[in-house]
């Protein structure tokens, strides 16, 4: 009589493994970040992010065309202005870099879903995500600037607003501002759980957004805290968020799982710049199989509960998906 269970029966061939596979990565699961800069003829690789580029508006369509051809259905646009000031005045300017990029992309690629990152750090001379007075990041005055930015992005044609600043009450303020401006139909993807992480270094290189003093620990979360993440997410749900993001993703799979289990909203994992750059560096040194490692990481996000994944790997993943089954 058999005295043990033979689990290997369902692993015996590639066909049966595919039949019983629990989680899959699809191109439509991916959101691809794009950095847009002022100037002409610019396609400049970010030094700390191999394969990621700054694009001027006259080169932007080249990148977006490739994204569309690969079957990726959504992008998030980050603007890097030529001029910065204390209040981040370019963030909500009608002719700001991200507003111009949104209008251009939606005109040329109307079916592509365009998300606008809504923050001030790329636009302020001090590099913080809000209004600063006497060395302190002020919460409520920052909300006014964030609402103005969100409304200007919606007016430019953004399909979704993604506020990433972690000010208290930011979802409530932006939801009310969008509704009052006639954009009640525009959803909010809240960076609901955003940690003060060491994984953001390459992004700050790309966005030119390194704080010029102090750090962001008074508004971004302590990496040691998980219960606090539930409080942050619950606030954003109550204030009208349509989707919830956990950032970073890789070191916070437990948080992604807890958010998904507790809240009945789509959950987005942000596979951040440091996670991306570590994989790229190891692959370039021949230490890992890049495709296998990336796909394993992304499946991990899905297994934890992520519905969507914001990742700089998106174009590579879409190419790999065209070549095989994952």
From TrEMBL:
InterPro entries per UniProt: ALAD, ALAD_AS, Aldolase_TIM
Residue numbers binding 5-aminolevulinate 2: 273, 312
CDD domains: ALAD_PBGS
Catalytic activity: 2 5-aminolevulinate = porphobilinogen + 2 H2O + H(+)
Single GO MF descriptor: zinc ion binding
Cellular-component GO terms for this entry: cytosol
Active-site residues (renumbered): 194 (schiff-base intermediate with substrate), 247 (schiff-base intermediate with substrate)
Protein family per UniProt: Belongs to the ALAD family.
Described purpose of this protein according to its UniProt entry: Catalyzes an early step in the biosynthesis of tetrapyrroles. Binds two molecules of 5-aminolevulinate per subunit, each at a distinct site, and catalyzes their condensation to form porphobilinogen.
Keyword Iron: no
Gene Ontology terms: biological process: protoporphyrinogen IX biosynthetic process
UniProt keyword Cytoplasm present: no
Database matches in Pfam families: ALAD
Subunit structure: Homooctamer.
Chain positions recorded as 5-aminolevulinate 1 binding sites: 204, 216
Protein's name in the database: Delta-aminolevulinic acid dehydratase
Protein residues bound to Mg(2+): 232
Family annotation (SUPFAM superfamilies): Aldolase (SSF51569)
Binding site for Zn(2+): 119, 121, 129
